[in-house]
C-alpha cells in the first residue's frame, strides 16, 4: 500500500533529523544548528493558544533561531493563528513517492552513478557550490538508519551528489545537487535511479523525495518518472 502523507512526515524527520527536540505542551521545538528550515521548524500536535505560541517563540529565540513553524495537513487552525500573528508563508513543498520496483527496471550507464558513504571530498565540494555546507552534512551524519551518499559523473567529470536514507521501509532522497554546467543532461534522473537501486539493495519498498513547489523542472522530472504526489507542507516564519 502506498505510504500516506503522515508516514512521509515521519520518514522526513528520521532521514533528515534535527540535532535535538524539546516538547512544550503541544509544540515540538527543533534545534537545527544551521541545518536549514526542515530541522529548525516547530510543529504542533493540536491547535495552540496565543499563550502557547508565545512560549514556543521564546524557546526558538533562546536557540538563536527565528520563530518558524512547519504546517502539515490538518494544521489549518494553527496556520490561521500564525497568519494573524504576522507569520509569512515560506517554501511550500510537495512530497512524492514511487515503488522502488518501478524505477529499478532501468539502470544508469556503467560508472555514471555510485552509492558511497562517507561522502567523498568532491561530493562535499559540489554540495558547497549549491549552498549545502557543513551544518547540513552534519544532519546527514546524525541519521542512525541505513544511509548513503549519491555521486554522479557526466562525460567523465564529477557532476552531481545527493543523500538518501531509509526509515520504515521507505528511502528518501535529500540534498540532490547537480552542478550548473551539467544540468539538462539527465543527471537528476540517473541519480534517482541510483537511489532506487541502493534502496532495493537495502530492502526498501518505496522511494520518496521532497521538492519545492516552485521548482518546475524537478516537479516535472518526478512526475515523468512515475512518482505520485502524496501531500505537501509549508512553513510560516516571523521575521
Automatic annotation (TrEMBL):
One function term, GO molecular function aspect: acyltransferase activity, transferring groups other than amino-acyl groups
One Pfam family from the record: Acetyltransf_1
Keywords in alphabetical order: Transferase
What the entry lists under SUPFAM superfamilies is as follows: Acyl-CoA N-acyltransferases (Nat) (SSF55729)
The record's listing under InterPro entries reads: Acyl_CoA_acyltransferase, GNAT_dom
Top-rank taxon: Bacteria
Ranges of residues in domain N-acetyltransferase: 109-239
Q: What is this protein called?
A: Acetyltransferase (GNAT) family
Amino acid at each position: 500500500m502506498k505510504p500516506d502523507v503522515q508516514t512521509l512526515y515521519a520518514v522526513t524527520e528520521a532521514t533528515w533529523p534535527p540535532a535535538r527536540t524539546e516538547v512544550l505542551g503541544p509544540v515540538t521545538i527543533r534545534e537545527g544548528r544551521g541545518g536549514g528550515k526542515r530541522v529548525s521548524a516547530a510543529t504542533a500536535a493540536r491547535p495552540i493558544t496565543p499563550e502557547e505560541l508565545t512560549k514556543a517563540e521564546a524557546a526558538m529565540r533562546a536557540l538563536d533561531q527565528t520563530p518558524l513553524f512547519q504546517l502539515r495537513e490538518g494544521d489549518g487552525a494553527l496556520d490561521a493563528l500564525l497568519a494573524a500573528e504576522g507569520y509569512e508563508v515560506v517554501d511550500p513543498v510537495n512530497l512524492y513517492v514511487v515503488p522502488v520496483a518501478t524505477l529499478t527496471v532501468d539502470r544508469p550507464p556503467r560508472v555514471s552513478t555510485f552509492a558511497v558513504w562517507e561522502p567523498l571530498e568532491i561530493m562535499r565540494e559540489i554540495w558547497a557550490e549549491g549552498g549545502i555546507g557543513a551544518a547540513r552534512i552534519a544532519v546527514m551524519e546524525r541519521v542512525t538508519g541505513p544511509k548513503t551518499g549519491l555521486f554522479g559523473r557526466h562525460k567523465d567529470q564529477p557532476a552531481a551528489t545527493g543523500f538518501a536514507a531509509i526509515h520504515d521501509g521507505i528511502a528518501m532522497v535529500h540534498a540532490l545537487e547537480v552542478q550548473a554546467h551539467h544540468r539538462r543532461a539527465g543527471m537528476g534522473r540517473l541519480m534517482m535511479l541510483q537511489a532506487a537501486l541502493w534502496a532495493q539493495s537495502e530492502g526498501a519498498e518505496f522511494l520518496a523525495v521532497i521538492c519545492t513547489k516552485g521548482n518546475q523542472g524537478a516537479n516535472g522530472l518526478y512526475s515523468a518518472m512515475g512518482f505520485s504526489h502524496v501531500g505537501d507542507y509549508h512553513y510560516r516564519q516571523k521575521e
